[in-house]
Design goal:
single chain, alpha/beta, 5-stranded parallel sheet, 4-stranded mixed sheet, globular, binds 5-S-methyl-1-O-phosphono-5-thio-D-ribulose
Length: 330
């Protein structure tokens, strides 16, 4: 399988090719590939590579090999539910097969279907979301919820792209998104490449921009939306939601069905804690004294009362979220 090495963007645009689940797991962990829908499909592809590699000639032996690969892929990142969704979907497909050969073929077909479905879902979401965007709006986002975070088109940036395709003038305010800088590196890269009007700001400028009335809508992606309506997304999203509420600006998460967790409530979700080096260094250069204790939560949680409505591929989800998520997403 082939993917863009996102750790090198925007300065270097390079594809990497993987042939084992171990390589794919390492790529997910180190964020060569990142973004909830992208890691869901990448993990599914990693499992398909495992099915191809397996020497099993009997189905139970193939399942044993696949379970080991799945466990490794599941251990990479805990927060985005799409990762588990992708792996579970491939395991279910393999288990429904009647021979090892059928299983190998079915798994590859399932991954291809997932790829196509993701782009379709993003395009649908884009159309629903674009109706919320007015001509001339400035949209504040967070992290990268664009083509790079998905198979293509994007979730939050898909909404922006769809609004632009409708002929609306849309400007995107892009916070840099420390510590991994997905905003400055990836969202900026996508928007500049697509010639969509955008301005990069430091994360610390978000409140000031909202207080000056320089933001009309907040549109972000999501890594998991729990059945009780809590939105888990890149660290910094919660402060955007609180400040948006303070300044009367609507906050919209955009997420496909694969991002909804219909099993867990918010208190059962693990927020990934990443390495200290991401905070004490910027792109490999040390900026803090040695020995300083560091906390590096990669995601935060926005409660449903701060959410104006959720943009999904099945339409808009509104309050009361628990009931409407269950109705629309089951
Ligand atoms: O740590 P990352 O870069 O994988 O986090 C990604 C995000 O938080 C995105 O906002 C999210 O996955 C949205 S998906 C299009």
């Amino acid at each position: 399988m082939k993917m863009i090495d996102q750790t090198l963007l925007p300065t270097v645009f390079r594809y990497v090719t993987y042939s084992t689940p171990e390589q794919v797991a390492a790529a997910i962990k180190t964020m060569v590939v990142r973004g909830a829908p992208a890691i869901g499909v990448a993990a599914a592809m990693g499992l398909a590579l495992g099915a191809k590699r397996s020497k099993a000639s009997r189905l139970p032996d193939l399942f044993t090999d696949l379970e080991a690969d799945a466990a490794l892929l599941r251990s990479t990142r805990p927060t985005a539910v799409n990762l588990f969704w992708g792996i579970d979907r491939v395991m279910k497909t393999a288990k429904a097969a009647r021979s090892v050969r059928d299983a190998r073929e079915a798994v590859v077909a399932e991954v291809k279907a997932m790829e196509e479905e993701d782009v379709q879902a993003n395009r649908k979401m884009g159309r629903y979301g674009a109706d919320l965007i007015d001509d001339g709006d400035t949209v504040l986002t967070q992290c990268n919820a664009g083509a790079l975070a998905t198979v293509g088109y994007g979730t939050a940036l898909g909404v922006v792209r769809a609004a632009v395709e409708q002929g609306k003038l849309v400007k995107v305010l892009v916070p840099e998104t420390r510590p991994a800088l997905q905003g400055a590196r990836l969202t900026a890269f996508e928007l500049v490449r697509d010639r969509i009007s955008c301005t990069l700001i430091s994360d610390t400028a978000v409140g000031h921009m909202l207080s000056l009335g320089r933001v009309d809508k907040v549109v972000v992606g999501a890594d998991r939306i729990t059945k009780d309506g809590y939105v888990f997304n890149k660290i910094g999203t919660y402060q955007e939601a609180v400040l948006a509420k303070r300044h009367g600006v609507p906050f919209y998460p955009a997420a496909p069905r694969s991002t909804f967790d219909l099993v867990r409530t918010h208190d059962k979700v693990t927020i990934e804690e990443r390495g200290a080096e991401e905070v004490v260094e910027i792109r490999g250069r040390r900026i803090a004294p040695r020995g300083i204790p560091v906390a590096n939560p990669a995601f935060d949680m926005t409660p449903p009362e701060l959410v104006e409505s959720m943009i999904t591929d099945r339409g808009l989800v509104k309050q009361p979220y628990a009931a409407n998520i269950a109705r629309l997403m089951s």
